[in-house]
Structures are given as C-alpha cells and as structure tokens.
C-alpha cells in the first residue's frame, strides 16, 4: 500500500486530537460515495472491545472532508445494527481546521468527549482505532487493516489499539 499521509494523535480528558498531513493534492469530493473522492474516515471504539464481532454503542465512524460539504468539514456517520446505539455527534461540535496547499493538505480534528460515547480515559486507557484516507485518484491508505479485504466499518474487533499514555 502506498503511504501518502502521516497521522498524529493526542488526547486529554476533554477531547481527542488528530492531525492528518496528506501529501497528495485535493482533487474532489464524491457526494454519493465518499470513498470515490478525497475524504478521511476515522473509526474509534472507546472501549476497544475486541470480543465484539459487530459495532457496539461505544463505536464511532467520523467522515471528514478537506473542503466543506453540506456546510461542515466533518460529521459522525456511524451505522448501528440493532439496539446498540448512541446519539450521533452534531457536526458543529467537531473542531476541524484545514489548510490547502498546491500539492497537499492538512486536516486537524478535535473531538470533544461529549461526542465520544463511553470515553473515560481514567478507566479505559485503550481505544479501538483505525482510519481510511480516501483519494479521488488512487487507492486509499489504511491503518491496521485494509478495507479491500474487510468492511472495516463493520468489524471493530479488527481495528488497531491506541493506548492513551500520560507523559
């Protein structure tokens, strides 16, 4: 898999921070299928439940764009099955900053704790974590597992683990 982006993360009791440095130029977004345009998909499980084969109420799927789409840069798009649900984060609660350059872009994201059902870093110091960085011209970049082999949005047990460490 070609690596065309770097991803950084941080945390506090109040929020999670993500920084995406994407070293390909923005081309376009795709309204019907975000995977056919430039977008970033971030998947989190606030309890890192590796024993669950499907999404739980602790799982989150965020969709981010390098340009505003429907007046927002990002939103939660988690699709639950059954009764395991939580209220989706309102797009206005996500703090997204984008800087466009000629051959690249950066996207900074802050997700407040109120948007993360079950986020309690004192009790649960690990998060299930993966991402897919889509681009209009070329295959995506993944972390932990490829969506070309699995529907990563449906299998949180296959996501990597992000340890919340204090230094």
How would you characterize the overall build of this protein?
By secondary structure, this protein is mainly β. The protein has no helices and 10 strands. Strands 3, 4, 5, 8, 9 and 10 form a 6-stranded antiparallel sheet that branches. Strand 6 and strand 7 (105-112) form a beta hairpin. The protein is globular and about 45 Å long. 35% of the residues are buried.
Task: Please name the defining characteristics of this protein.
mainly beta; 0% helix; globular; 167 residues
Write the layout of secondary structure elements.
Blueprint: E1 5-11, E2 15-22, E3 39-45, E4 59-69, E5 72-76, E6 95-100, E7 105-112, E8 126-134, E9 141-142, E10 160-163
Antiparallel strand pairs: 1-2, 2-7, 3-4, 3-8, 4-5, 6-7, 8-9, 8-10
């Amino acid at each position: 898999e070609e690596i065309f982006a770097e991803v950084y993360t941080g945390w506090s009791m109040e929020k999670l921070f993500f920084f995406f440095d994407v070293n390909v130029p923005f081309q376009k977004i795709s309204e019907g299928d975000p995977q056919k345009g430039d977008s970033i998909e971030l998947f989190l499980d606030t309890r890192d439940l590796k024993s669950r084969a499907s999404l739980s109420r602790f799982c989150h799927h965020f969709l981010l764009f390098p340009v505003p789409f429907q007046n927002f840069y990002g939103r939660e798009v988690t699709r639950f099955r059954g009764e395991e649900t939580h209220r989706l984060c309102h797009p206005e609660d996500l703090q997204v900053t984008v800087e466009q350059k000629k051959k690249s872009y950066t996207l900074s994201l802050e997700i407040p704790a109120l948007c993360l059902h079950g986020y309690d870093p004192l009790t649960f110091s690990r998060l299930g974590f993966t991402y897919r960085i889509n681009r209009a011209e070329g295959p995506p970049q993944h972390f932990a597992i490829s969506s070309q082999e699995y529907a990563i949005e449906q299998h949180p047990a296959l996501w990597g683990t992000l340890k919340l460490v204090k230094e």
